[in-house]
Inverse folding.
């Protein structure tokens, strides 16, 4: 699956002084951090949830968590690198809570067989990005989140297993089934391959 061609650019890191002020509760310094990273956070949340309302809720939660935990940034990596992982974890946590709340409302999973390998994601690269994102938004959360983490953000199956707190085999099956369900939705929608 292609990654977002309009994806956010990593903004320049705040200075240590700006981060210290934001961590100390300076509202203006924290607002600048939020403005600097809101596109990145929204992009992560939207790719995981596939809809604007949930993405906005998750993004808001990311910044609330950041406000409480910014002082934990130790500076051992760039702030952008640390915050990307922080935001991704917070969005996944939010998705996990939402999944528990929506279990009764979720559409039945599509039985797509057993995993065959990673090459299956390559066919999706030939479909227009907008069509993929529309079909991705229709997938059940249990398929969408692992699929996005694997094919959009490039996490390994082991990393996804840790992030989602799911067995490794389950994650592989969810990604495989998610890809197949996505293909079925694209085919049903008449998606066309890019030239």
């Amino acid at each position: 699956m292609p990654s977002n061609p309009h994806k956010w650019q990593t903004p320049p890191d705040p200075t240590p002084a700006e981060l210290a002020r934001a961590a100390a509760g300076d509202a203006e310094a924290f607002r600048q951090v939020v403005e600097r990273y809101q596109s990145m956070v929204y992009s992560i949340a939207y790719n995981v949830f596939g809809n604007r309302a949930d993405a906005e809720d998750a993004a808001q939660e990311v910044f609330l968590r950041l406000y409480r935990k910014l002082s934990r940034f130790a500076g051992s990596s760039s702030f952008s690198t640390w915050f990307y992982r922080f935001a991704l974890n917070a969005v996944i946590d939010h998705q996990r809570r939402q999944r528990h709340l929506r279990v009764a409302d979720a559409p039945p999973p599509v039985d797509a067989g057993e995993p065959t390998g990673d090459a299956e994601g390559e066919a999706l690269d030939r479909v227009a990005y907008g069509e993929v994102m529309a079909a991705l938004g229709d997938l059940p959360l249990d398929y969408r989140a692992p699929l996005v983490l694997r094919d959009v953000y490039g996490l390994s199956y082991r990393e996804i297993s840790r992030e989602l707190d799911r067995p490794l085999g389950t994650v592989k099956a969810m990604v495989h089934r998610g890809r197949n369900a996505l293909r079925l939705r694209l085919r049903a929608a008449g998606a066309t391959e890019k030239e």
Remarks:
- Residues 118-188 form a domain with the Arc Repressor Mutant, subunit A fold (CATH 1.10.10.10).
- Residues 72 and 120 are 40 Å apart (CA to CA).
- Confidence is low (pLDDT under 50) at residues 1-8, 103-121.
